[in-house]
Amino acid sequence: MFKIAHIFGMRYFFTMKKIILFSFLLLLLSGCCFEDDVEVARYNLSEEELSLIPYTQGQEVIFMHSNGYEFVANVENIETEWERYYDFCEWFCCGQDYFSYEVKRVYMNSTYPSLNMRIRINESYYGDYHPMGVHFDINHRHFLSIPYDSSGTFVLDYTDAILYDSIVLNNKVYRCVVEKPFDFHMFTDDSTVVKPQSILYNSSGLLQIIMSNNETYTVQN
Amino acid sequence: MKHTPFRIRGLFIVSVVTMFLSSCGEPLEGTFNICDEAKIYMVDTTITSFSFVDNFGITESFYMHSRTWYEQHLYYYISGEAYFQHFGVAYSSSLNDFFFMVTMRADDEDTFMEIEWNQRERFGYYFLQNKIEATPKPNMEFIDSLAIQGVTYYGVIKIDYSSVVTQKDPLTPLVTYFAAKYGLIRFDVNENIWLERVSQ
Q1: Which chain B residues are within 8 Å of A218, Cβ to Cβ?
Q2: Average pLDDT over residues A190-200
Q3: Are the Cβ atoms of B65 and A187 closer than 8 angstroms?
Q4: What element of type H or E holds B12?
Q5: B58–A68: do the CB atoms touch at under 8 Å?
Q6: Interchain proximity A188–B66, CB inside 8 Å
Q7: Mean of pLDDT values over B175-199
């Protein structure tokens, strides 16, 4: 009698084990996506857009503080990459449509003052897709964005930027210069804190950083 | 020889009893405040920002973090029936992105102060034991008063790594001056770059 019960129990055990295993596999497979995402468009950066960040890898850009201190900012890295943009999707997102867009990032750093500057086009600091903008930040703390059109011309309507036909810095004339205030500063909204207030920028790149106490960092070469 | 088993058993019992007794001391009770020697170095946290100027004339601003947990704190850490006073404040700088933090923690015997740069370099000091906890160990000096940019600060602690290291990373100062009530008043990034406080 015991033997029969024992055999019946073992069979029951093995059947249950198979059911559990099968259910587990089914659960695993249900989470898989067998459909490839579909690229519906591809936006590459034009030559005009690429020229908005005119730096070369290894370039040394010399800046001078308004009180005379000179320092070098090194162009340490230049990246051009393809990113994907997906519409927002919650829960089960499989085989989604996306478009690809090209981004360019330039990293320029100085030792003292310690300025880690990023200049990016076609990618916003929100991490979302905001095309047609030169995005600039210092030390991941101070951010601004300058919009441009498909011909690579800055579009300053509806912004707080100022466009100068020409401006003289260190006895050198620069044409079509944009003065753009910073859009926001991370971690502080204290107006007494001395912080970067705006930049001067044109097709030569970053020309000047203007601080809130009117100290400046001006390009020398 | 015939008493040996009894001796071993006796030793075993004594050890167990000793172990038992050592683990059940009086539970700590009471309120342990930051000691008077340390209390004067508790920074006035109503000053939420202040400026420095370096030896090249470049202005740097420090500000208390907003919207982050380590902006400032003064509370009692509770452990059983014991209350230990803790204090801390942290600042970032607007240009170079320096990060400076000071904390004080009272325990039943002492108050431990920790000064931290850039969330990497930590200097610790026990006020009553007069003991430094840092690697490498810097020179520490208590200065009665020090004039910085026309302002005299009293009760200044100087923490000086210059004789033990030549250069830390580019943003970690070799020398730090920390004043009672006001906190950071001067720091030397290296022997060529130093910054002094210009606003209280």
Answers
A1: none
A2: 92
A3: yes
A4: helix B4-22
A5: no
A6: yes
A7: 95
Same domain for A213 and A129? yes
- A20's tokens: 């559990």
Residues from chain B that touch A185, judged by Cβ atoms under 8 A, are 94
In a domain, A167, yes or no: yes
User: Across the interface, which of B63, B94, B170 has its CB nearest the CB of A112?
Assistant: B170
Let me know if residue A90 belongs to a domain: no
Mean pLDDT score, B35-59 = 94
CB B195 within 8 A of CB B52: yes
Report the half-sphere exposure of B119 (CA within 13 A, side-chain side): 6
- ipTM surpassing 0.85: no
pLDDT digits (tens, 9 = 90+) for A139-166: 999 999 999 988 888 988 888 999 999 9
- Residue A153 to residue A149: CA distance in whole angstroms: 5
Domain that includes residue A13, residue range: 1-32
CA dist B56 and B126 (Å) reads 36
The 10 Å Cβ neighbour count of residue B170 is: 13
In whole angstroms, what is the distance from residue B198 CA to residue B59 CA? 9
So where are chain B's domains?
25-197
Residue B61 contacts A, CB cutoff 8 Å: yes
Of residues B7 and A128, more confidence is placed in: A128
Does residue A197 sit within a domain? yes
The answer to whether A120 and A132 are in contact (CB under 8 A) is no
**pLDDT per residue as tens digits for the range B122-176:** 899 999 999 999 989 999 999 999 999 999 999 999 999 999 887 767 788 999 9
* Domain count along chain A: 2
Q: Phi/psi at B135 (nearest 5 deg)?
A: -135, 120
Residue A56 to residue A76: CA distance in whole angstroms: 9
What are the backbone dihedrals phi and psi of residue A25, each rounded to the nearest 5 degrees, phi first?
A: -60, -40
pLDDT recorded at residue B2: 45
Average pLDDT along chain B: 86
- Judging contacts by C-beta atoms under 8 Å, the chain A residues touching residue B61 are 192-195
